[in-house]
Model the fold of this input.
Amino acid sequence: MRTVRFIATCMLLSLGATAFSAEEAKDSSFGFGFQLGLGTETVLSDPTDSASEMVTFQKLALQPDISFGKFGLGLDVTVHFNLKLGSGGEGVEFYLPDWIPDKAGKSFIELYLPKIAYVRWGQKGDTLYAKLGSFDDGTLGNGFIMGNYSNTRFLPETRIFGAAFDLDGKQFNFPFVGVETFVGNVALFDVIGTRVYIRPLSTTELPLLKELQVGATIAADFKPQLYDGDDTNDEDSDSVAVFGGDVRQPIIANPMVVMAAFGDVAFQNKGKWGSAVGIGGRFFSFMPYTAQIRLLGAGFMPTYFDGSYDLFRSMKFASINSTPESSDVTFGWLAKLGFSLLNNLVVFSVSADGPFSAPPDVNPGINDYPHIRGVFTLGEGLLAGFSVDALYEKYMLGADGDFWGDLISPENAVIGAKVNYRTGPAMLSLLYNLRYDPSNGFIITSSLMSSIRF
Done:
């Protein structure tokens, strides 16, 4: 298994080197920024024990940011400390898990690699795209296997360093083939995925047919019990693999309506399978939408690697392994709608999915109830110096019998918000995260930070 991961890494790096050598940056503008932040933050006193108490430390963050054309690099070097002044004081108390791998329960590379906030080239959707660092939008193909995967769910206390690399053959005037790749954590290579696609009609003269994509995706988690402390080996029995095929065909492309039809079929552990067909696009250039109908075999989980996968991975792993083999088939649905106004100063999106049927009477799982995800962004400049980023994601809606009451209950939910206020070069930021851990209950982290951008 380790050999497979090593070969995959080498292929990713070699592809990247080849593509970068062929890319010519059209924009050679140079930018440099430096942010100095000081505030407070609550962290686990002992990160090796998730049940340890939360303690408050002062936080000093040094965050330089460099850009040149399509290239960007950001660092995030953070020091947590407390001043011990007065008689008998110890001077300065440093938070040792920031710097000592054993204290943090991590390897050297796990601890120090995330101090690089990001390295990127281009943007997702470009013919050449590469990024290293934090992700909230890890998606392969139509997102039926991996959609909006995020490795930031343990911020602010833990930053995870991931990687993505996409190469479209259009980069080399060879539009017949392309590839998308994703790694959730480069230090562990736990969650990885790859999609290869072709455009079989790219030589036709019909504008829409030439963009038809037919793809194949495989994604896996080699450590599904990582955050339970139970994953101590790399045996195949302790892994999850999802693979499948997809098709995507643009139907309408004009300023009023953009629409594409898509279809997927996928397979999970123990022969579980699922399929979906749907449409998606934009109305009036500012209103994205998606509608999907799903046909799901017993125990199959669509979008297995989703936005809060890291928080619920052990629950999902237990569910797919405990579901008995059955020929039962259920119908499911997904709907997504949003808007982006004032040049992306106001962005809102909500998606919901679930089964058409009621949950079973015996051993219902995470996939037997509706799931909802909402994202809201208020950009800087609309309300003076204020800006907001907020997330609400809820699993197992109605599990306690009260759907509407459960909708606002924090149980089985992920809630995050960041509120900023800028005046001149100074910014004040309040960060709040609440997540529900089935083993340890509610985990709340927060920080208040003031920073100056040079």
In short: The helical segments are 2-22, 101-104, 108-112, 309-322, 403-407. Residues 2-21+28-453 form one domain. The mean pLDDT is 83. The chain has one domain: 2-21+28-453.
